[in-house]
Protein 1
Amino acid sequence: MSEPSTAHPLRQAFGRLGPLLGLAAIWSLFAVLLGDSFWGWDNQRLMLLQTAIVGTAAVGATVVIISAGIDLSVGSAIALGTVVIALCLGAGLPEVIAGAAGVLACAAVGAWIGAAITGRIAQVGGVTLGAALAWATAVPLGVPLALTLGAGVAAAGFLLLPRFIGSVELSPFIVTLAMWGALRGLAKGLGDNQPVYVDGHPAMLDLMRNGDEGLSAIAAPGVYVLAALAVAFAWMLRNTRFGRHVFAIGSNEQTARLCGVQVERTKLWIYALASATAGLAAILQFAYLGMGDPTTAEGYELKVIAAVVIGGASLTGGEGSILGTLVGAFIMTVVDNGCTKLGLENWVQEIVTGAIILVAVAIDRVRHRRG
Amino acid sequence: MRGVSKRFGATVALSNVDLEVRPGEVHALLGENGAGKSTLMKILSGALAPDSGTLELDGERYSPSSPLDGRRAGVAMIYQELSIAPHLSVAENVLLGVEPTRGLRVLWGPLRDRARDALARVGRADIDLDQPAGRLTIADQQLVEIARSIALGARVVVLDEPTSSLAQEDVERLFRLIGELRDRGTSVVYISHFLEEVRAVTDRYTVLRDGESVGAGVTAEATPEELVAQMVGREVAELYPRSPRQPGAPALVLDRFGGRAHPDAVDLQLHRGEVVGLAGLVGAGRTELLRAIFGLDPVVRGDVRMAHVTGPSSPGNRWRQGVGMVSEDRKREGLALGLSIADNLTLARQRTLLSPRALAAESQPWIEKLGVRCRDAEQTIGSLSGGNQQKVAIARLLHADVDVLLLDEPTRGIDVGSRAEIYRVIDELARAGRAILLVSSYLPELLGTCDRIAVMCRGRLGPARPVADVDEHSILLEATGAREATA
């Protein structure tokens, strides 16, 4: 009875490497079918480039999903990020500041989401009301007066609304579904309903160009951004208390709470960090498009979730890895790229991607079945 | 820790209860389900606040605002349903929430050392620290939880029914461990139904009945009869009504019946007009047996015959064949808590076209017959007490007019009064010629209500013996596998 039921070591290893083996199989299939037009490095670095944006956002989403949460606002956050960056550049701000503004805007959105999920909808609602008021009255009242009014309302709302509403916990699905719509609207409002073009050629655009020499000739700089982010997040999940608490919350939230894990604060950070990676993805998306576009990245939230899930994470939490997510994101790119090269139409690719999601999760379920 | 006394408001879950646990003693908290043990322990752990009364820990006032607060003060609870993060490693589970860190970084070396230390003190230094805790057996998961309380430096450890799902050798190891905790000066509060265990492992005891402390003393000086008398009070005779019954034709016959994991080649005959009890430890396969009979789980071998119908079937067909089941998990499986009493009660037999009013009218007689205390049949069932919810779950079988009733822990977590009413219903049903298969982990209940009792151990079902031929002791021996079933 006291013999622990351990799976066969081979099976365990297979389980961990499952997504990687899947990738190898799909990649080899296309390599055989297509020859060097597929496996040549030119195509490889193109695929890496195509993976960079979804992959970057998916790194953050992995953390959310391990904690048994979900984020449906990723695509809208990316669109908002591109608009913010373009507007900052248009206002003559340095590129570094513009990029940081894009990331910070998204991180603020994430903190908002985290606060709403952990019961502080009244507080963030009050602050949002103040900000909206400041924006709406900036023209008739002038900026200083509008800011004062907005700050006053925000402070009053932050302090008073919770007394009337109390703590209301909302599910991540609902909060991020609301943000999925609201952030898209905010992006359109900021961009005045159209793309925000940028004069000249900011150096930022080279992030998503394959260069002619040096490191950028091997892969575009954006790919290195993704790689660095992935390494940092993988380390964080493995080696920081925060990272382990992410797993604990996803595995058994009651236990985590009982053991003194600061569940609320941890969740706040989870969503802020995840949205910050969406902001990083927005920089790459901006570099790819060369403009800020409020209608871009539509449906990316689902691509991101698909990458995480194909990579072996469980939507019920407690499981998932950055490496798996990267592999999942790359699998989707390989399928798109290979199908295009085979001359298959878009609708075929979409069906194949859907099938891969099902097969990946089914294999994962079989792997988990014990007894 | 001394002088814990407190009272609850209108419902009087606890009325002026005293509990005194001395340093370095194992203290038994006895009482039937619903006596107020879990309420008292929730107050001790900080999950509930008392309406009145005070708590002291080591001579100082102790008023925990949350379970976390209680743990920090040195009171660790180990519930029957273990509190493990299954995906995290064993080492991380032991030190969850108190991980050693430098800056942001978790220090894996010290973390593993401290976890191994704590595990060594529970006698299992050999557990692989890096495997996911969910892979451990229940017994080892429990040790991980005890190690967690040791790593935290807990002064009071509360064990709630710790042996309910353990095999005999694990129980013995747990008892040795409790002895070691005591010798190091840790106080242990031990909650159990099993008087043999209480006598084997505890120093002193407190008995709760209906929210009051009715007795306390040194365990060795009290006989089991005295303890039972204190627990049950004077109602023991009428708690289990039993009218003369006449077993009739077989209503349910199992022949080498087996499911996927459990049960294993079960033979059983259940007659009309009798109550057969299934005893056994949690996880022995009793629930699985009922589920397989009812068609909820696949049947892989053997045969089931109900009166005229044979062979495996679906739950829908079972209802039509006159078989009904009450689930052990009332909240998640047994009832749709958001729906009305009428919806729940009539769910198993509804016409294609129906109106809420017709359902309510159909439900009313059953509500009255079983004494369900409610506003009306339209009331949401989630707002009823556990006992009244369970009466509705049983009324569903009566409304569907079934001949065979499969009852899985029908009195779990409900108060003494409702339990007596459910026993009365069971007795009336048996007298009216229905056949009842009753799963219960509470032995006095089985002995009080059943005509025959069969014991299940690791998926195997022993022979059903007349209730006069068995007692708690013999059932326990057979359930723990200490004695092989002999026909």
Protein 2
Amino acid sequence: MSKTGEPVTSQSGDAPYVQLSGISKYFAGIRALEDVNFACELGSTHAILGENGAGKSTLIKIMSGVLQPSAGEMRVAGKPVQFRSPSEAADAGIVCIFQELSLLPDLSVADNISISSPPRRFGLIDGRAQRRRAEELLARIRCEDVDPRALIRDLSLSRRQMVEIAKALGKQPKVLILDEATSALTSRDVETVYDLLGRLKADGVASLFISHRMHEVDKLCDTLSVFRNGSHVETFRKGERSPSEIVRMMIGRDVEAQFPPRPEPVARSVHLSIRNLTWENRLKGVNLEVGKGEIVGLGGLDGQGQKELLLALFGVLRGVEGTVKAGEVAGIPSSPDAAKGGKARIALVPEDRKTEGLMLPMSIADNLLAASYAKVSNGPMIDPAKEKAAVREGIRKLQIKIGSAQDPVATLSGGNQQKVVIAKWLMTDPEIILLNDPTRGIDVGTKQEIYKLMRDLADEGRAILFYSTDYAELIGCCDRIAVMYDGAILTELTGDAISEEAIVAASLNIDTGEAA
Amino acid sequence: MNMWRQNRAFVGALAMLAVLYITYNFMHPRGFSTAVLVQNANEVVAIAFVAMAQTLPVLLGGLDLSVGAVMTLTACVASVLVNGSPAEILFGMAATLAVGAAFGFMNGVIIVYGRLQPIIATLATGAVALGLALFIRPKPGGDVDGDLNWALTNSLWDLVDTYGLFDPDAAWFQPIAWIPVPLILLFGIAALVWVPFKKSVTGRTVYAIGSAEGAAYMSGLPIDRARIAAFTLGGFLASCGGLYLAIQTSSGNADVMQAGAYTLNSIAAVVLGGTSLLGGAGGAIGSLVGALILRVISFYFRIVSIDPLLQPLIEGLVLLAAVSLGAIRTLRVKNRLELFR
């Protein structure tokens, strides 16, 4: 584990505006940041790079006052500071534009832009001044088309993102942090934001830029910092490191978790075939085949369309185009009900266990049976004997640790809750299993059980499509990895070609010359 | 033990009812007599059915503002149809219940396919039901079969006696002859309708929707069908209340105030019976008990001398105290964020 986090060598003479020394952050004993030394200078455009979970988000949350560090010191303009809230950080000139939008959907654009310090007259909010202010700020980012009186909920995602930027500019930042701020923008807006960053730089504002798009980073930034596993690896000027060096810095050397042995690649009969699948502007022509008994991993950075692909296959999304063939059944299911039944028999372990996977107040037994009541019913009535037997079988198969099957599922630990979700779907005896990050937030022991279970299910002849944000997991579990980028599968890796370098390179859509 | 933990609210309501009603009988000059029991039983049936009807939309996480109006409408329908030959009477009763179920079905269809919030959709359809009721019964009146009225509003002895089923004085019959028919109807229908519903896939789906609609959908449960079924059953139960009210009063009355009062009391009864207004937890039997509690509270005003003008005030305070008992659990919650889930 690299703990070097060497202090930034300031090329220009002046002291950095923001200086972090020895910053650590723990969540319930889990390390998110460890002993980070980091600096940010006025007038620079500074990119922060790293894998999912490298600590980038935690870093900017600490800088912008959302989180407080567990240890270490932060200085702004040479003075030590401790931000207790984002507004204190904003007062010190550090403003962040978050990935998750912070706008209030039921308020107007003008209300949102001035939400923290609205202009007042006689103690009351001055609506007209507020509107003028919104107009000025929107004009600065060429969004004259946005009516300050419009409600946020009526705006498209890209317009909302621009309002978010206007709101941040309204706080007159010295350091502007953009966390994936361009991911939702149209290409015209992206140009506008690039322009804006240029102008801010000329005005002496520092921009901290988190992006997964290498070409963007290359174009805009003058300084790059790489994070890995909660540690600051290195900071360097643009052009000092080659793309393949950057990729290697991002992944490091750790290999963790035990995986069941991967079988030799064999020719398999195709069970799930996806041709040219498109949906809105999130899926842009996905082509993929999954064989019987095969585990195919979906890789890539967050938000490249992996989740949408799984939801589309499960019949959740409306207006999906393209062809899907599941075994003998052709066509995209119209609903989860249609997907799980009939001949296709598709199962999806959803992303959010608590809202999509489980009915938390209901009993473990009810949750286990939720997808397969038809199997334990005589006509419309549930047969208590069959119900009991099925519940017992599900609990046994996954070794779920419970008190009584009548307890609310909310009383279980995260790992056991996830086992309930998986057991629920195994009860439908699915041919195709879609897994959306099934090991997120669960303990290592349960993770290993799930890995083994996946391999066992594949060996029984089921087709498994597995999305994970953890590359080590993809490498350890999958027969083949399809890396998604911007709504399509750009690269498929098989056998020896599967390596962390190859996945990261494909995720960023850069050619290091080493990837297959 | 497990039962107790999961149905704490229900068991609490049951205990409250027992204490209230036993105390009432001790204070009543003719307490613990069949006459008092029969009279009380008659007064609880309609509100108990309406409260059970309200339970279904509440389990889904909504409210039905039309239950009282559907009861009034079906009472008016019954006041026209339930008389004549035995066959005609049976047809009339079946038709009354069918009207209620159909009205509930319509509510369900409007809510599911119109994508409306139940509370607003039923506010509108409730007004429609009252309009229909006024159309059928512009003035109070009607004549419901007298034998039926007598037989269903008294004890089992009177039921047997009225229709000459067998000798009502037979020795084997005496241990149960005192039981009021309205209570048998109430608990009988509750057992025959609610218990199977709760054990059906549709019933489980209703609970699942109230618990986490997203998870219910992602499990491939029949969400739309369950919603419509829930409102249909609600309409049916409300019409049971309406039919009984018509038989009990031998007439129909399109009383707008009464319909509103029944709707509001039904919500109070549901809460008292331990069903969460957020949906997903509780049941119709609890609401039945809740309705009994509400009525027993009002019985007290007959034997305790309180200025009638103060009655609503005191009723309100008692109700507030009763529902507050249910909120005590929140004092024990350590993570305040959980209060919002």
